[in-house]
Amino acid sequence: MERFLFFMVLTSTYGIQDWSQRPLGAEVNPGENVTLACVVKNKAGDCRWEKDGTPVGMFPGKYTWSKNLEKGDCSIHIFLAEREFDSGKWQCSVTATSFRSKDALVSDEVKLLVRKAPDSIIFYKGDHLLQNKIQIVEGLNTSITCLGLGGDPPPTYSWKLPPAISQHWIHHSDNASVLTVIGERSSHGSEISCTAHHPALNNNLVSYLSLDVQYAPRIHVEYEQNGTLHRIVSKHSTILAKEGEFLIIHCLAEGNPNPRVIWRKEGLLQTIDQGGKIVFMEIRKGDRGIYSCSAQNQIGVVGPMIVQLDVEYPPSLVSTVPVGSSQVQIGGGVTLQLSFYLSL
Fold first, then answer.
1. What is the mean pLDDT of the chain?
2. What pairing do the DSSP bridges indicate for beta strands 289-296 and 260-265?
C-alpha cells in the first residue's frame, strides 16, 4: 500500500512527460559546434541519444549534455563537428517515469549534416564533357550544364555572361545549373563563367568556358588597280581596265571555321582558286568576261558575287588573204569585179 501511495505522489507531483521542444535537423561546417535541441516538460526519466540507431555516450570536449538536464533540457552539444563521425540521423528519447507508466518519449530521426565543400566544377554539353571550350552554331540554341563535384549539400550557382550574348535562359536543378544560349557571332572568342556557392567554401569556385561560335561565311570583293584599292559593295559590279595593266581582284571571306574561297569564270568548267584572289600581271582583252566569287565552310555557303571585267584596248590592223574573185554582169554592158579575202 505504501508503494502504491508513493507512486501516486510522484505522478501527481511531476505529471506526464511530454515534449516541450522536439529535435530539429541541422547543417554545420566541419570544425563548428552545434546543439541538437531536445526539451521535455515534467521530465522524470533518463535522457538518451542515438545516432544511426547506435547509442551515443557523453565524452567531454565532444558530446555533452545541456546544463539544465535535470530541468528537462536533454539537448546535446556536439563540438568540433566531423563529417565522418557526426553526420547522420540522430534521435532523442526519454525513459518512462516508472516501469508502470507509458510516458516514454522517442523523437523522430533528424538529420545532422556536416557539410562538404565541392572539389571542382565541370561543364557538360549533353553527355559530352567540355574542356575549356564549347562549339556552338550561330542562330541555334545550345545548353551548357555546370556541375559542382563532391559538394554536400550541392552548391548553388550563378553565371556571368559577356554583353554580346543577348538571349539566354538559366534553369537550376537540385545539383546543377543549365544555361541555354543562342549562338551569336559577336560573342565568338568571349568567355562565360559559372560560380559555385557553398557555405563550406572559404572562396567560391569559378570555372571558365571559351565560346567557339561557328557561322557561315560573309564575303566582299576588292580590286587593286594602279596602286589604288577599291571596294565593291554590290553583288553585281563592273571593273573597267586597260590592256596591259596590272590588276588584282580579291575575294575576302570571313567565317568560322575558315571558309574556302572559290572563283569561277563564265564559260569555263574548272574553278579558279588562287587563295582568294585573281592576279592579272598584264591584262589582255581575252581576260574579259564575267567572274563570280563564293565561299563555303561546314556551316554554309555564301555568294556568288558577280564581277564583270571589261578590257579597253587600242584598234589594230587586220591582215587579209585573197581567196578568190568573181565577175557579175549588172546590165548596160557593166561588169562588176568581186574579190574575196579571208581576215587573219
1. 89
2. antiparallel
Do 216-312 and 2-114 fall under one CATH topology? yes
Q: Which three cell numbers stand for residue 262?
A: 572559290
* Predicted confidence (pLDDT) per residue in 110-122, tens digit: 999 999 999 999 9
CA dihedral 322, 324, 330, 332 (to 10 degrees): 80
Strand partners, 265: 291
Instruction: Record the pTM.
Output: 0.74
Name the CA radius of gyration of the chain, rounded: 46
Bin 332: left if φ > 0, else alpha if -120 < ψ < 50, else beta. Answer: left
Distance CA 304, CA 291 (A): 9
CATH of domain 216-312: 2.60.40.10
12: confidence class by pLDDT, cuts 50, 70, 90: very low
Residue among 181, 258, 162, 164 nearest 219 (CA): 258
Cα separation, 143 vs 125, in Å, equals 6
Report whether 278 contacts 263 (CB < 8 A). Answer: yes
Q: Do residues 272 and 278 touch, judged by C-beta distance below 8 A?
A: yes
Lookup: cell for 109: 530521426
Q: What's the confidence (pLDDT) of residue 340?
A: 62
C-alpha cell at 273: 582558286
Domain 2-114 CATH (choose: 2.60.40.1180, 3.90.1570.10, 3.30.70.580, 2.60.40.10)? 2.60.40.10
